[in-house]
Specification:
CATH topology of chain A: MetI-like fold
Oligomer: heterodimer
Number of domains of chain B: 2
CATH class of the largest domain in chain B: Alpha Beta
Strand content of chain A: under 5%
Number of helices of chain A: 8
Order of helices and strands of chain A: HHHHHHHH
Largest sheet of chain A: none
Strand content of chain B: 15-25%
Largest interface: A-B, 20 and 26 residues
Distance between the termini of chain B: 19 Å
CATH superfamily of chain A: MetI-like
Radius of gyration of chain B: 24 Å
Number of strands of chain B: 16
Structural class of chain A: mainly alpha
Shape of chain A: elongated
Strand order of the largest sheet of chain B: 6-7-8-3-9-10
Radius of gyration of chain A: 20 Å
Chain lengths: 214, 402
């Protein structure tokens, strides 16, 4: 085992970096998209049931199936992997963002408007900061989930540690099969834990002390 | 006539910094509703006065208030501030020039006290230093120590403190007009009384034009230079000074709304300042007891007010309690009943009733001794006030062409 790792630790490290990179990017853009959709949903109430249904259905969709659906459109490679991870990254954030934005006290919004804040200021200075703890929790969930999705996305030759798992599966019974699968799995768990720590730190830095729980 | 009267009774030393407000045939109707929320409201609010909008729920008082800063756009009619039509500018920039205070303060929980107060000045493009100075100045004004409270978050404040910050935020950019929507509705009665007194003392200094919605007629009587009593559809039932409304309700609706005991309500109008205080014998801590007792007996007093070196009352003993000691001592303290000179007669009676004596010591700035107030003085004052209000009403009735 140690031999297996020490022989190719540079590759492993590189794959781990790529895995994290894929997930971070997907979660980052996923968050932006999700918050943008959530803002529209809170503005136009009739979008609410549609958004909720879509995110509920989306989460039941097996990631493997999505990869299969995307293949004819985007071909094999990193793009397909990215789109697939992005899709799943959006969903938890979207749900939380809608709940968070809708949960902002109406009296505060009226007060903000009454003080002369424009719609954009109300959004950026009052709505999103107040909904941020809930959105942030969604981003954390999204990050965890995307770590696993990214592994599946490696099936279409996406970057990351997923490749190790698939190699291990393909060589089942072979000399290094277990090593491959283990390195892939444990590697992802370690990255996920590291990412969660980062998210905690991000929460500390970005959630106002005035609304932080504990 | 009424203007002169209020100017006398409620004005302070400050110069008027408020602006005149005028509503002309203002209508607000919502599509799909038969009756208009506001049928046709015309109103003149003089600069520097507090006008209270009262009425039963659903009478359109809040709608009327919100049309002044265009949170609600009138269907027709004009509203002008200092002669300028409020539709002349963009709603957001209009609202930055009008203070807005709502129930509970409605502070932004994710911002510190300083950021909350500085919100409007920041939008108006003030520089950081000027905003910081203004924040400290306002915290001082509403009675919160800037060094202690500046960096706190709203959840670290009591309800009363939050409301104070809310008022400070409304005053931040020094707007000529301030709108308040049930500002003290969310705090306990004792805090509310104190906040009302503070608002009045702030107003004495600033002389803004304040329009305040409340459902509490007692609050309206206490705070208002004028009271606007509204009936359904924002129809004016009566618009007058509290004195005149209490003395001569325009119709049954007003009489019902004001309720029974209007003489008692007058007590909220008058303050200790309006009454001649009784003088009492005083002694300073450390003085010879024999000398103090001699003075008290010469004046016919059975009690003695003990002051400290800064003229603050510290004890109110019977003469026999002093005899026991050679020098006058600053105790016992438990008998001490003091009232601020700005307290209403209502609050004063309340305090006197719960104390052992039928009188109380009145203090002025920095708790310094001013005199003594008793039941007798209050009842005398009420009788005189009632007489003069009745005369006023008679006179104005004669003056009206019929």
């Amino acid at each position: 085992m140690w031999e297996f790792i020490s022989e190719r630790w540079q590759y492993i490290l590189y794959s781990a970096f790529q895995h994290a990179n894929l997930v971070f990017q997907a979660v980052f853009f996923g968050t932006l998209i999700a918050v943008a959709i959530a803002v529209l949903v809170t503005k136009f109430g009739w979008l609410d049931p549609i958004a909720n249904t879509l995110s509920a259905v989306g989460l039941t969709l097996p990631s493997f199936a999505l990869v299969g659906l995307l293949l004819p459109l985007t071909k094999i490679g990193a793009t397909t992997a990215f789109i697939c991870v992005l899709f799943y990254a959006i969903l938890p954030v979207l749900r939380n963002a809608i709940v968070g934005l809708q949960g902002v006290d109406k009296a505060l919004l009226e007060s903000a408007k009454g003080m002369g804040m424009g719609e954009l200021s109300v959004l950026l200075r009052v709505r999103i900061p107040l909904a941020w703890p809930v959105i942030h929790a969604g981003v954390r969930t999204s990050m965890q989930m995307s770590m696993g999705i990214a592994a599946i996305a490696a099936y279409v030759l996406g970057p990351g540690l997923g490749a190790y798992i698939f190699t291990g599966l393909a060589q089942a019974g072979g000399a290094n099969a277990v090593n491959y699968a283990l390195v892939g799995t444990v590697g992802i768990v370690i990255i996920a834990m590291f990412a969660d720590l980062l998210m905690l730190l991000l929460g500390r830095l970005t959630i106002s002390k005035g609304i932080r729980v504990a | 006539m009424t203007t002169n009267q209020t100017a006398e009774s409620n004005s302070g030393t400050g110069e008027i910094s408020g602006a005149e407000l005028r509503l002309e045939n203002v209508v607000k109707s919502y599509p799909g509703q038969k009756a208009a929320a506001v049928e046709s409201l015309s109103l003149h609010i003089p600069a520097g006065e507090i006008v209270m909008f009262v009425g039963p729920s659903g009478c359109g008082k809040t709608t009327s208030l919100k049309m002044i800063n265009r949170l609600i756009e009138p269907t027709s009619g004009t509203i002008s501030i200092d002669g300028k039509d409020i539709r002349g500018e963009n709603g957001n920039s209009l609202r930055r020039k009008i203070g807005y205070v709502i129930q509970g303060g409605s502070l932004f929980p994710h911002m510190t006290v300083a950021t909350n107060i500085g919100s409007v000045p920041k939008m108006l493009g003030w520089d950081k230093k000027r905003i910081a100075e203004r924040v400290d100045e306002l915290l001082d004004l509403v009675g919160l120590d800037p060094n202690r409270y500046r960096h706190r978050y709203p959840r670290e404040l009591s309800g009363g403190q939050q409301q104070r910050v809310g008022v400070a935020r409304g005053l931040a950019a020094d707007p000529p007009v301030i709108l308040m929507d049930e500002p003290f509705g969310a705090v306990d009665p004792i805090t509310r009384q104190r906040l009302q007194d503070e608002l009045l003392s702030i107003q004495r200094e600033l002389r803004k034009t304040i329009v305040c919605v409340t459902h509490d007629i007692d609050e309206a009587i206490k705070l208002g230079d004028r009271i606007l009593i509204l009936q359904e559809g924002a129809n004016i039932a009566q618009y007058d000074t509290p004195e005149n409304i209490l003395a001569a309700p325009a119709n049954d609706f007003v009489a019902d709304f004001v309720g029974a005991g209007s003489t008692l309500k007058q007590l909220s109008l008058a303050r200790i300042d309006d009454i001649d205080l009784r003088t009492a014998t005083t002694a300073i801590v450390g003085e010879s007891s024999a000398e103090a007792i001699r003075r008290a007996e010469a004046a016919g007093d059975e009690m003695l007010i003990v002051l400290d070196d800064r003229n603050r009352p510290v004890a109110w003993p019977w003469l026999r309690q002093i005899r026991a000691h050679e020098k006058v001592r600053g105790e016992p303290r438990e008998n001490l009943v003091t009232l601020d000179h700005r307290a209403t007669l209502n609050d004063s009676l309340d305090t006197m009733l719960t104390s052992t004596y039928s009188s109380a010591i009145v203090t002025g700035d920095r708790d310094s001794y001013l005199g003594v107030i008793d039941f007798h003085a209050v009842t005398e004052h009420m009788r005189a006030a009632e007489r003069s209000a009745a005369e006023q009403v008679e006179k104005s009735a004669e003056g009206e062409p019929t």
